[in-house]
Here is the input.
Amino acid sequence: MTEPLDVLVVGAGPTGLALAAQLRSYGVTFRIIDRSLDLAHESRALAIQPRTLEALAGLGFADELVARGNQAVQLRMHLPRRVLSLPLFDIGCDDTPYPFLLFLSQAETEDVLGGQRAERGTELVKLSAEDDGVVCVVRRGDSTEEQVRARYVVGCDGAHSTVRAEAGIAFEGRAYPQTFLLADLEVDGLEAGAAHAYLTAVGMLFFFPLGSPASWRMLAIRPPDAPDGDVDLGQLQEITDRYVGEGLRLRDPVWMTVFRLHNRGAARYRSGRVFLAGDAAHIHSPAGAQGMNTGIQDALNLGWKLAAVCRGNGTEELLDTYEAERAPVGRTVLRFTDRAFTIGTSRNPVIRLARNRLAPLLAPLALRSTRLRGAAFRTLSELAIHYRRSPASVAGPHAPRRGRPRAGDRLPDLPRGLQGYTAIPGWHLLLAGQDVVWPERSLDVVTRGRAGLLTVHWLGSEGPWPGGPVHGLVRPDGYFGYVAGGTDLEELCVYLDRWLPTE
Ligand SMILES: Cc1cc2nc3c(=O)[nH]c(=O)nc-3n(C[C@H](O)[C@H](O)[C@H](O)COP(=O)(O)OP(=O)(O)OC[C@H]3O[C@@H](n4cnc5c(N)ncnc54)[C@H](O)[C@@H]3O)c2cc1C
Here is the structure.
């Protein structure tokens, strides 16, 4: 048995890698293992949402992701008699530095997140929880086994999670009947710089701009009368001709696969010292490009909490907020993707009429409204996620209400650059208001024993509450834990004693 670790991260997909990066930034002792010998080379999830970029900015990844990705993408919806264009960028979200959907292959994303640093060819086969830790058995490619003891284990090991099975957590839901075909390839005749959706009475076909390892990602529902089994280029071409008509020629596939989609969620995200995150906790259709993004944000909700507890600045109660905050987000994603998928694939005549005849008539009107597009984009971009109902979100006396950030909301980047204040790992106290005298003795109490854990920023009239005086406490993941009006910091101290105790 090796020295006990703080955290064992099982699985080095995007969720595990994001978690590892956050644990590393807090100096926690951890290992990240993955059963596969090599980094994934397939494109898989290819859209990164603005909120994910914001969350990864503090760890130093966002600039590199943006540099490698493609952001100026339009969506072209090819309907029976017309083509509608919808920009996926620059749509009136002025409170984020990333007002666009970033297209980048998952292989590239994992490379940026540090996929090379995981211990590969190392598989978790068993775990047993004890009072003060978890004993894990990991097996290497040469069949040797090692016992690893960790205070906490996080299962980021995907849809078929061993951690979930070992922890006895049910994975409830269903599989969709349709089969999907997916390929990374070259397409002659397709307009570059745009994503293309062909919505026809027979089925749906999508092409997304990739860049690497091929120019395009193709995604289609296999028509019911097409042969089962593996897919080849000939079949993909046949389906494309059926959905699009002539004019597109597919060639040079780098990756082709057939898969079924599921809609399933873990019954719990925590069992004692064992946690689940990412696909281990929820899997669903790719509608809205939420899967990988939700997983990364699970990880970044959990990592700082584990770090706080391991370093003695957090309690079990803080760890409980992981499930309280992320399970509702997971359930919403399952519901939303299920609805979108069901509408998109239904053979019910009424839904088909609405989808194929009414939507094409109404969509251009809806798309003309920047406000409507902005509202839809806020939901998909995950900027609208909040934890207002979390026990760790507390509105103090005279807290600002409508139209201003509240406890549980994310810190907006308004004015631009505000999120940069909170890039240093830790908690951040924002004091807002012009010519306000903040009581020094109270500030001493707030910061005492919290050097390196809590940073105070005087915003003056800048910031999300222009009138002031308002004080807001931002958690390490960029969400407000506490917001109150006035300069009395007594209730803030009560909040901090509970959620950021000093030793
Ligand atoms: C074919 C395909 C296409 C997809 N397309 C899209 C898309 O277009 N958009 C989108 O948002 N999402 C898409 N997804 C889903 C997206 O890839 C996932 O949501 C995302 O990868 C989840 O990341 P994760 O880190 O939670 O899990 P994963 O990426 O599945 O990573 C889990 C890791 O755990 C490792 N592992 C498993 N068991 C063990 C064990 N016992 N011990 C050690 N390691 C273990 C695995 O090797 C793997 O590396 C697609 C998925 C597939 C399969």
Q: What stands out?
A: The domain at 5-69+104-172+263-345 is CATH 3.50.50.60 (FAD/NAD(P)-binding domain). The chain has a mean pLDDT of 90.
